[in-house]
Amino acid sequence: MARLIWLIGPSGSGKDSLLNALREAPPRNLLIAHRYITRPADAGGENHIALTETEFARRAAQGLFALRWTAHGLHYGLGLELDLWLTRGHDVLVNGSRQHLAQAQARYGARLLPLCLTVSPEVLAARLRQRGRESETEIARRLDRAAQLPPAGCRLLNNNGALSQTLLQLRQLLEPLP
C-alpha cells in the first residue's frame, strides 16, 4: 500500500534541507510533493508553487486541494495530484503541518506515515539565529513551540548532526515494509 509520508518539525529543524537532499537521489518509488503557498516564489526556503490569495481561494473553491490549511498568515495546500500518485502505487513525501496532522489522518488513515524531525533546543536556536529571519522574541516563541512533545504515533528522525546522517536515517525509515 502506498503511503503519504507527512514530515513535520519545527521551523529551522532542517525539513527543507532534508527534502532538497532527498530530491537529488530519491528512492525509486518515492515522489516528493510541492506545496501551494500564498508566499512569493523568491521568498526563500522550500520549493513551492506561489499563489496569490485570490488564486488560492479560487482553487480551493474548485476542490483542487487534497488538504489545505492556514498558518503564520499564509495559506498552504497540497494538490489533488497526491491522490493520483498514491492510487498509482507511489509513496508521497510532503512537508506537512503539526497542527494539521489530524486532518491528514482523517483523510488518509492507515496510509499516513507521520515523521517528526527533531533537533535539540541549542541546535535549533543556533540555526534560527543563523538564517536571520526572526527577532530574538520570535526565536523564543519558536523554541517554546518546538518544546512540545511530538504527536502520538509519529516516527522520530533526529537532525542534530550532519545532514547526510539524517538522510541515511530517513532512507531507512522509507524502506518498504516487509
TrEMBL record:
<keyword id="KW-0547">Nucleotide-binding</keyword>
<dbReference type="GO" id="GO:0019634">
    <property type="term" value="P:organic phosphonate metabolic process"/>
</dbReference>
<dbReference type="GO" id="GO:0005829">
    <property type="term" value="C:cytosol"/>
</dbReference>
<keyword id="KW-0067">ATP-binding</keyword>
<dbReference type="GO" id="GO:0006015">
    <property type="term" value="P:5-phosphoribose 1-diphosphate biosynthetic process"/>
</dbReference>
<comment type="pathway">
    <text>Metabolic intermediate biosynthesis; 5-phospho-alpha-D-ribose 1-diphosphate biosynthesis; 5-phospho-alpha-D-ribose 1-diphosphate from D-ribose 5-phosphate (route II): step 3/3.</text>
</comment>
<dbReference type="InterPro" id="IPR008145">
    <property type="entry name" value="GK/Ca_channel_bsu"/>
</dbReference>
<feature type="binding site">
    <location>
        <begin position="9"/>
        <end position="16"/>
    </location>
    <ligand>
        <name>ATP</name>
    </ligand>
</feature>
<dbReference type="GO" id="GO:0033863">
    <property type="term" value="F:ribose 1,5-bisphosphate phosphokinase activity"/>
</dbReference>
<comment type="similarity">
    <text>Belongs to the ribose 1,5-bisphosphokinase family.</text>
</comment>
<dbReference type="Pfam" id="PF13238">
    <property type="entry name" value="AAA_18"/>
</dbReference>
<keyword id="KW-0808">Transferase</keyword>
<keyword id="KW-0418">Kinase</keyword>
<dbReference type="InterPro" id="IPR027417">
    <property type="entry name" value="P-loop_NTPase"/>
</dbReference>
<dbReference type="InterPro" id="IPR012699">
    <property type="entry name" value="PhnN"/>
</dbReference>
<comment type="function">
    <text>Catalyzes the phosphorylation of ribose 1,5-bisphosphate to 5-phospho-D-ribosyl alpha-1-diphosphate (PRPP).</text>
</comment>
<dbReference type="InterPro" id="IPR008144">
    <property type="entry name" value="Guanylate_kin-like_dom"/>
</dbReference>
<feature type="domain" description="Guanylate kinase-like">
    <location>
        <begin position="2"/>
        <end position="175"/>
    </location>
</feature>
<protein>
    <recommendedName>
        <fullName>Ribose 1,5-bisphosphate phosphokinase PhnN</fullName>
        <ecNumber>2.7.4.23</ecNumber>
    </recommendedName>
</protein>
<dbReference type="GO" id="GO:0005524">
    <property type="term" value="F:ATP binding"/>
</dbReference>
